[in-house]
Design a protein that fits this description.
about 15% strand; Sporadic carbohydrate cluster protein, LIC12192 family; SpoChClust_LIC12192; single chain; alpha/beta
Length: about 140
């Protein structure tokens, strides 16, 4: 049997707060649709992650579809799993398959090891800046 052709990009949005803000699903989908249109991507319907904290059930289901998709079009990098072990499983899928992740709000693409490293650096910097109170700052 022949290889399954890539069908398009599945959106990934959330019903949870992201980066300290609640973004309605309608708005997340508008951002994704606009991004897809501007980049000439075939946009498929979005999967909505469940409301529970740190839940990645829908993301895992999308990754299971990896062989029939060009990739996942995230609303934002804030939707990436917080747990580094779960995130590494996602990165493993990107490395092993012809699979790409795009992030509409930030206009970022992760398609290879270099993109994964850059995204992990971005997440580290974000975490450090969001948790500044954890550091002893020198008085000026």
């Amino acid at each position: 049997m022949g290889e399954v052709p890539k069908r398009g990009w599945r959106g990934y949005i959330s019903s949870r707060e992201q980066g300290g803000h609640f973004i309605p699903q309608r708005v997340q989908n508008l951002v994704i649709r606009d991004y897809a249109a501007r980049h000439g991507l075939l946009f498929l319907l979005s999967a909505v992650e469940y409301y529970m904290d740190d839940c990645t059930m829908m993301l895992r289901a999308l990754v299971d579809e990896a062989d029939s998709l060009a990739g996942i079009l995230f609303y934002s990098t804030h939707l990436l799993p917080k747990d580094p072990v779960v995130r590494e499983q996602l990165w493993q899928q990107v490395r092993e398959r012809d699979f790409t992740l795009r992030f509409a709000l930030e206009e970022l693409v992760v398609a290879d090891a270099q993109g994964i490293t850059a995204m992990e650096d971005l997440l580290l910097v974000r975490d450090l800046t969001e948790n500044r109170s954890d550091f002893d700052l020198v008085d000026r």
